[in-house]
Design brief:
Blueprint: H1 3-23, H2 29-34, H3 41-52, H4 55-66, H5 70-97, H6 103-110, H7 114-147, H8 151-199, H9 203-211, H10 233-253, H11 255-258, H12 267-298, H13 307-314, H14 318-352, H15 359-383, H16 388-412, H17 418-442, H18 452-470, H19 475-484, H20 495-523
Helix pairs in contact: 1-8, 1-14, 3-8, 3-12, 3-14, 4-5, 4-7, 4-12, 4-14, 5-10, 5-12, 6-7, 7-8, 7-14, 7-15, 7-16, 7-17, 8-12, 8-14, 8-15, 9-20, 10-16, 12-20, 13-14, 14-15, 16-17, 16-18, 17-18
Length: 526
């Protein structure tokens, strides 16, 4: 048994113990679904970041950078980070006011229509299952590299680790374990990346050599490696902006992000958490991407999605490597636990609607539903080979294209009706899912302007317009809209947080200028 495996086992035991302890404090569905609506800023920030930065970031995104896509992926990372600011201000704080148990339930309450809750719940199950698969596959890929066990056995071990405490403790346990895992992978990045930089020959030297790389030409140029995705830099940047918009919308409205706001103790916590989470995501991902590019310089012959695993086991002192690997594991487990809880909640609260049962029976049914959901995902992951990046992309685009228009309109439009919302969400889902399936199964590549995401968004707008013309908002819907805009508490002045975010933006720009732009331009003779 090697030291890396020992570190992973210890971390798994800790997460299980913490999650099981938190489960003892669960008294009712309010605790189970939304952690009693009393979570402080640190827990909301930890859960927001941990549930988003899954193995997709540590293995999938870094694999894309390793393949030659540094600047396009950085663009995506920065754009997705801004989604927290827009999401909390335009959607998240209002969702919390609704006092719903799930985001799907919010849609049902807003439009006074249980069909909306069921449709949103069904879409949640599809999208989050896809996203959860990517998390499970990332965890299993990591464990395979460390233990030497077959991938399928690692899937079972990974499933057991997060399923037990998630089923038992619900959101109460997930919030705490998410925050612990966030701190673990933050420490892992801070401790591990300097060793990668050192092996690459130092920061400035590595940037210079990558700028003139012959093994992966253009890896850190603006347009990226032209042999990887598209043959021109303009197309690659356009792809990055498109993908950045998708993930900004995912951060703004997806259930695995906005459901965290339902647990916040007040609206001020929602807004503060969004500012901190945005800065954390942008900072962590940017330096991860630098590290992935440096690994490419050190060893250009790796499997891209395993580049960070290789670095942890070959470029660092063993104890530091253990910290990095347990950090990556933590990122995967935290996301998987969040996704499992969302799937279980969607089945029991949104599809089945167990509110008429006793509190004890509601908890029993909720946990049973989560067991079923976890077993289904286990079977899918067991027979599906690892394709982390694109499975994650499917889950994200489906949610963004089906939910985004309806979510924002539900808060800011008086004219959208229940039928408009229903058709908008349904058309958006079908438009994206069908074209994405055709593209994947038939091997058809759509022009960039016909990306499944754009088709889904367009179809969603069409559905909202047609449905709202056929059926106007009822008095009940108008009343629900009005209630959303009645503040139940004073959030106080948020100006200081905005100012600090601007300061952060300036610092980030200066760091990128001296860490990337100046040494790169110097190396290429400009």
């Amino acid at each position: 048994m090697n030291i890396y495996l020992i570190g992973v086992i210890i971390s798994m035991i800790v997460y299980l113990a913490v999650g099981m302890y938190a489960g003892k404090k669960v008294k009712d569905t309010n605790d189970y679904y939304v952690a009693g609506r009393k979570a402080p800023t640190i827990l909301i920030v930890g859960s927001l970041v941990a549930s988003f930065l899954s193995t997709g970031a540590f293995l999938g995104d870094t694999g894309e950078v390793y393949s030659g896509f540094f600047i396009p992926i950085v663009i995506v990372g920065v754009m997705q980070g801004t989604g927290y600011l827009f999401g909390s201000s335009l959607f998240g704080r209002f969702v919390r006011r609704s006092e719903a148990l799930t985001i799907s339930e919010y849609f049902g309450k807003r439009f006074n229509d249980k069909k909306m809750t069921k449709l949103a719940g069904a879409i949640t199950i599809v999208a989050v299952t896809a996203y959860m698969l990517s998390a499970m596959q990332g965890i299993s890929t990591l464990m395979t590299s460390i233990t030497g066990l077959e991938y399928k056995w690692c899937v079972i071990i990974a499933w057991f680790t997060f399923a037990i405490f998630t089923i038992w403790s619900g959101s109460s346990g997930v919030l705490i374990t998410d925050t612990i895992m966030f701190l673990v992978f933050l420490a892992a990045a801070l401790v591990g990346i300097p060793f990668i930089v050192n092996h690459a020959g130092g920061w400035t030297s590595a940037i210079g050599e990558l700028a003139n790389s012959t093994t992966t030409p253009g890896i850190i140029s603006a347009g990226g490696n032209l042999d990887y995705l598209y043959p021109t830099g303009t197309e690659n940047i356009t792809w990055a902006v498109t993908y950045g918009v998708v993930w900004a919308l995912v951060v703004m409205i997806s259930p695995w992000q906005t459901s965290r706001y339902l647990m916040a103790k007040d609206e001020k916590t929602v807004l503060k958490s969004a500012v901190y989470a945005s800065a954390a995501v942008i900072t962590i991902t940017t330096f991860l991407y630098f590290a992935a590019a440096f690994i490419q310089k050190i060893n250009p012959d790796l499997v891209p999605s395993q580049s960070m695993i290789w670095a942890a086991m070959n470029l660092m002192p063993k104890i530091v490597g253990v910290i990095l690997l347990t950090g990556i594991l933590a990122a995967g487990i935290s996301s998987a636990s969040t996704f499992l809880s969302l799937i279980g909640f969607a089945i029991t609260n949104d599809i089945m609607d167990v509110k008429k049962q006793s509190v004890k029976k509601q908890l029993t049914i909720s946990r049973a539903g989560m067991v079923v959901a976890s077993l289904i995902v286990l079977v899918l992951a067991y027979f599906n080979p690892p394709q982390i990046f694109w499975i994650m992309y499917f889950g994200g685009t489906v949610i963004a294209s089906s939910w985004a228009v309806v979510a924002i309109a539900s808060v800011w439009s008086k004219k959208i009706s229940s039928l408009g919302a229903f058709l908008g969400m349904l058309f958006g889902f079908l438009g994206c899912a069908v074209t994405k399936t055709i593209s994947s199964v038939a091997g058809i590549t759509f022009p960039m302007y016909l990306d499944p995401f754009f088709i889904g968004i367009l179809m969603s707008i069409v559905g909202v317009v047609i449905g709202s013309l056929i059926k106007k908002p009822t008095e009940e819907e108008k009343a629900e809209y009005a209630k959303l805009h009645v503040a139940k508490e004073d959030v106080g002045s948020m100006n200081k947080y905005g100012i600090w975010y601007i300061v952060y933006g300036v610092v980030f720009f200066v760091v990128m200028l001296f860490a990337y732009a100046i040494p790169y331009m110097s190396a290429v003779g400009k």
